[in-house]
Amino acid sequence: METLTINKIAINALKSDIKKLSEEQRFLRNQRKTVNIKGERTMEPWVAAMKHRANREKLRIMFAAYGLMRGKSLEQIEPNSSEENSLKNSLPQISKVIETYNQKEN
User: Fold this and answer.
1) How many CB atoms lie within 10 A of CB 88?
2) DSSP secondary structure string, 47-89?
3) By C-alpha distance, which of 8, 15, 99 is closest to 62?
4) Coil, strand, or helix at residue 105?
5) N or C: which end of the chain has fewer CB within 10 A?
6) Which pLDDT score is estimated for 36?
């Protein structure tokens, strides 16, 4: 019963980190634009674009880890991926994220 609670805590921690990174993605998307920007620019568009791309890959791996922790298979998480862009190529990073969040809550 204790491992179930620890896994649930780890899942909730991962879920909150995904939410934070998703909010940052919205901010970066607005910073990438060169015209009609809402608010003030805090970074150069090219820096925002590079951060946005890096966060996109990180979020993809985090979503896959979240799905695996909830008992889904890789085909259920991302059913329309091509063979060369499959999550199977990212399994070492996904397992590292899962291990990190499981250790974080112990």
Assistant:
1) 12
2) HHHHHHHHHHHHHHHHHHHHHHHTT--HHHHSTT--STT-GGG
3) 15
4) coil
5) N
6) 64
Q: What's the CA gap between 8 and 28, in Å, rounded?
A: 30
Full-model pTM? 0.81
Buried b (16+ CB within 10 A) or exposed e, 58-73: bbbbbbbbbbbbeeee
Tokens of 35: 């015209």
Q: Which run of H or E residues covers position 41?
A: none
Q: How far apart are CA 33 and CA 80, in angstroms?
A: 29
Asked if 28 and 48 count as a contact pair (C-beta separation under 8 A), the reply is: yes
pLDDT in tens, 31-75: 887 776 666 778 888 899 999 999 999 999 999 999 988 888 888
Which tokens in the block code for residue 22?
Answer: 């998703």
* Cα separation, 33 vs 60, whole angstroms: 23
